[in-house]
Amino acid sequence: MSAPDEIRAVEIEAPEVAAARAKVRRRRSIALAIALALFAITFYTLTIVKMGPALFDRAM
Hints:
Distance between the termini: 72 Å
Keywords: Membrane, Transmembrane, Transmembrane helix
Number of strands: 0
Number of domains: 1
Shape: rod-shaped
Mean pLDDT: 85
Oligomer: single chain
Low-confidence stretches: none
Protein name: CoxF protein
Strand content: under 5%
Radius of gyration: 25 Å
Order of helices and strands: HH
Largest sheet: none
Number of helices: 2
C-alpha cells in the first residue's frame, strides 16, 4: 500500500518563487484585514446611527 507517484513527488521550489508566494500571501492577508476592519467599522457606525441622537441624550 504505497502512495501514487503524484503524491510522493514533492518539488522543492526555488527561493525566488517562495519569496514571491510569501509576498502575495502577505498582501492578501493585509487586504483581508483591511476589509474586515472596514466591515466592523461599518456595522459599528450603522448601529450608532440607527439608535439615533437620543442615545446621547439619556441620563447616566
